[in-house]
């Protein structure tokens, strides 16, 4: 490893010592973090800035920042931190190009994303991303744990009534979520096929009641598509990774040229690039990231255990219907129970104070983007771009701890668990939730005093901003949240039961004001073509003020709300000045 180049700068007059550490391409960012930590510990500097050289910094494990790293600044004008590996050599086989995928850290590697010439390639599927052509399910047998589909949907992946592809997956559209289900067997019976799935997702899929797949008797049977099979590669831009032979197959787009080194491809090998981890007693404080791009991550749970979400990408670990239903004082009866997990993000924060991001990019990501997970106080995210993200863009706060049934109120004795006083402002979100269609651009759960202001959100699969959690009117830790002057359009590109801005739970002092929501997408395959809204206060929403929001019409929903909500002056009559001010403020 080359010697890191160190410059010490004495700040005369203030009697403070600041240091810069420059990290060139190929040098270790983790080593620079340790060097900065030791300089502060030894009294050689009171503050350190790590400056990353412009270009791609490849990493093979997450960089961890700890309480001892408090006060650090990491800057990188043009620096990209990538969790991916490059492919430089291809061999042509007919229309396809083939590359060898070597072991990673001593073991075979699998991945769910591929980027070619900085554009996301298509994981081989049977509809070529023409989502309007998806097949519909026929029926759904919960007792036998069988899903029936048309035979026409599986012709390419069958060989004498058995699977050609050992790791075939189904992506099933169901109301406000999609499930990723690993197919165990296909049994052809006439024009229909009985499909079974592996566990644990099979048990979850057939036991959890919400959201359910829609059958033909509803008038809008659930669509689905099949993916992860070489036999499905018939369209430019598609790819398939055979993990048994370590071969990657790619069908190049016309514009990508030919030859052994015709296109630059990157596949991800890790789920998280940075972890900022403190404790309640010893949080990580006052770290700033500036001008850095976070790219090329994956999230492998769907390949290993399937993925059956409840909402906003939060996946179920156990769920079932209740008979008899539970009586809940102050709430309607509860007909189901569920416990949740949370997907990985490119950058994750736990027990922190004032961890800030300015002029950063979160893009080409296979999980979520930035996640203030638990115990975070403060933290400003501003002038950042979130784009091409498989799941949620910005995530903040608890979505029920793993041990708490998700409909129970969350009001921890130790308020240090609660994420509070975050801000996300003047950021752009686009092409979010492009794999898990039930995710959102900004997902804030049990939060307090969050400020979501002057963001521009467009081209998302479901809801723009989701604020709150719990489906419960009881008083919890949420309060004094602000959603102000955001511009949201071209949302709900795949899922309905949605809104530009959506709330859950009791949130005293929360204000949703002066936002602009317009231009909802019109996919034909949604479960209910009328069940979409500009503004939507859902179950348990209480003590929330919704005022002066511009929308083209008054298509709003207040579903099973609690007391104290105030709706004032929302709709097309709102002033043009409010319309002009919404979205990113250009400096």
Give the secondary structure arrangement, pairings included.
Elements: E1 5-11, E2 16-23, H1 29-41, E3 47-52, E4 55-58, E5 63-65, E6 73-82, E7 84-87, E8 91-93, E9 96-100, E10 115-116, E11 119-120, E12 122-123, E13 135-136, E14 139-141, E15 146-150, E16 158-159, E17 162-163, E18 169-174, E19 177-189, E20 192-197, H2 201-207, E21 223-227, E22 238-242, E23 247-250, E24 265-268, E25 274-277, E26 284-297, H3 301-305, E27 309-311, E28 314-328, E29 331-341, E30 345-358, E31 361-365, E32 368-377, E33 380-382, E34 385-389, E35 394-396, E36 419-420, E37 423-425, E38 428-432, E39 442-444, E40 447-448, E41 451-453, E42 456-460, E43 465-467, E44 482-484, E45 487-491, E46 498-503, E47 506-513, E48 516-520, E49 532-537, E50 542-547, E51 556-558, E52 566-568, H4 576-581
Parallel strand pairs: 2-3, 3-6, 4-6, 5-25, 6-26, 12-22, 25-30, 26-30, 26-31, 30-32, 30-33, 31-34, 32-35, 33-37, 34-38, 35-39, 36-40, 37-41, 38-42, 39-43, 41-44, 42-45, 43-46, 44-47, 45-48, 46-49, 47-50, 49-51, 50-52
Antiparallel strand pairs: 1-2, 7-24, 8-9, 9-23, 10-11, 10-24, 13-21, 14-15, 15-20, 16-17, 18-19, 18-21, 19-20, 22-23, 27-28, 28-29
